[in-house]
Structure formats: structure tokens, C-alpha cells
Write a structure and sequence with these properties.
The chain is an alpha/beta fold. 36% of the residues lie in helices and 27% in strands. The chain has a domain of 124 residues: Rossmann fold, CATH 3.40.50. A 6-stranded mixed β-sheet has the order 6-7-8-3-9-10, with helices on both faces. Helix 7 links the parallel strand 7 and strand 8. The two termini are 31 Å apart. Bound molecules: adenosine-5'-triphosphate and magnesium ion. The site of magnesium ion (MG) has 4 residues, from helix 1. The site of adenosine-5'-triphosphate has 11 residues, from helix 1.
């Protein structure tokens, strides 16, 4: 589904990614873990064509999309829930959802059923929503592109515990439907309930990868690379 090989990228003079390898199979849930500033968002931005790859390859379903523009990445079936949510502030909920929609199983009605809070606020502007509502809207907007893989950067950051639980439940439901997910989040316990596999990065390099059972069993990985 998604294959990233030897990805290198950075900002100006500074190299941040030094050869990231990761893969997500259809229907698989994979985490991208690592402490602050290790390169998770940079990896995602480069996959989505928001930052140029300096070396390496990004392919989706076998097609080489390295340095393709963001709309082509979306057409290939990748949907992004970006760090900081990036809701369109002056569009209302409905407009946010349909702005980048593509036809498929996920329709406006279905997203509003998944997130009833959004259904009650379809006329509210993006900047009139709580953080939790904005995150639901960001997820709904990504689903409206009918992606084969949804990528979430900081899925529950800054949200109240009850809202977090709603997001985790929503992601579990998406997984049960066979949606592939690549997810960044700091809640390792919730991630180990959801994920199939984990990829840990440190200073722009993959330092550990393993399946969920290996992560649960490895206190060392958690302590050494994640400080939990
Ligand atoms: N726009 C930018 N310009 C210059 N340097 C940047 C920029 N964005 C990130 N960096 C640097 O790149 C490195 C990796 O940052 P990145 O945002 O990818 O980390 P992260 O793993 O997503 O961290 P966090 O958990 O805090 O979100 C950091 O050293 C950061 O300071
Ligand atoms: Mg980040």
C-alpha cells in the first residue's frame, strides 16, 4: 500500500531524515513513534509532497510518487489528518468536509453519523469549534477523500480524556472496516491496543521496528526511545 524507502529530507541546510524505511500493508495499522523533534512530522510531510525528498522513494500501490504534488498523493489514496488539524477557519463544518471530498463509501451523511457532534454543528465555522470537534472534522475531512490509507499526525494531542476516547473508538472502528492507518501519537497504551506494528525513529533514523506483541513486551524500547 505505502512503501517508504531510504527517505531523506530536511529544511535548508539541515538534514533531518537520514534514510527512513517504512511500509503499511492494506488494512494494517502502523505507528510512527519517537520523542519530540525526531522527524515524525517531517516524514509525513515528505510522504505527502509538502516537503521535497532529497533522496529515497515513496510509493503507493506500487506507483512511484516521490516528490509528487500533494493532490496526486491524495488521488493515489492517502488521506492526511495533519498535526495542528489545519481546519479551514472561515469555512463551516459542511464546507470543510466537502472541500476536498472525492466520491466513495464515505459520504457527508456517513461522516456526520460517525461524529454526531459535527452533525449538530454543520453551520459552525471552523474557528468556532473546540479542539476535539476540530480533530473530528480533520478526520472526517480526510475520510471524505475516501483514502485507502489514513495518516494521523498527533491523533489526540491536546484533547480532553473523553474526546480522546471517542477518537480511539473511531479509529478502532475504521480498522475493523479494513482501513489502513499510519498514526503518530504519544499515548503508547492506546496505540498498543490499536496497532499491528510499530516503527520507532530517533534523529531521522529508524531505530526499532516490531509487531505489537514485541512492543508490549519490550520495556527497553519504551524506556530507551520513548521515555515512557
Ligand atoms: N519548518 C522547519 N524548519 C526548520 N526545521 C524544522 C522545521 N520543522 C521541523 N524542523 C526540525 O526538524 C526536526 C524534526 O522535526 P519534526 O517536526 O519532524 O519532529 P516530530 O518528531 O514531528 O516532533 P513532535 O513530536 O514535537 O511533533 C526538529 O529538529 C525540528 O526542529
Ligand atoms: Mg510532529
Amino acid at each position: 500500500m505505502l512503501l517508504v524507502e531510504g527517505l531523506q529530507a530536511g529544511y535548508g541546510e539541515s538534514a533531518v531524515l537520514h534514510g527512513i524505511d517504512l511500509a503499511v500493508a492494506p488494512g494494517e495499522v502502523v505507528t510512527l513513534l519517537g520523542r519530540n523533534g525526531m522527524g515524525k512530522t517531517t516524514t509525513i510531510s515528505t510522504i505527502f509532497g509538502l516537503l521535497p525528498a532529497r533522496s529515497g522513494r515513496v510509493s503507493v500501490g506500487g506507483a512511484d510518487l516521490t516528490n509528487a504534488p500533494p493532490h496526486r498523493i491524495a488521488l493515489a489514496g492517502l488521506g492526511l489528518v495533519p498535526e495542528g488539524r489545519q481546519i479551514f477557519p472561515t469555512l463551516d463544518v459542511r464546507e470543510n468536509l466537502i472541500a476536498t471530498a472525492r466520491p466513495g463509501a464515505w459520504t457527508l451523511d456517513r461522516v456526520l453519523t460517525l461524529f454526531p457532534r459535527l452533525g449538530e454543528r454543520t453551520g459552525h465555522m471552523g474557528n468556532q469549534l473546540s479542539g476535539g470537534e476540530q480533530q473530528m472534522l480533520a478526520i472526517g475531512r480526510a475520510l471524505m477523500t475516501n483514502p485507502r490509507l489514513i495518516v494521523l499526525d498527533e491523533a489526540t494531542e491536546g484533547l480532553a480524556p473523553l474526546i480522546r476516547d471517542e477518537i480511539w473508538a473511531c479509529l478502532a472502528a475504521l480498522k475493523a472496516e479494513g482501513e489502513a492507518i499510519l498514526i503518530v501519537d504519544k499515548n503508547i497504551d492506546a496505540l498498543t491496543r490499536l496497532a499491528d506494528r510499530h516503527v520507532v525513529i530517533e534523529k531521522g533514523r529508524v531505530v526499532w521496528t516490531g509487531d505489537n506483541a514485541e512492543m508490549v513486551a519490550s520495556a527497553e524500547v519504551k524506556e530507551r526511545y520513548l521515555h515512557v
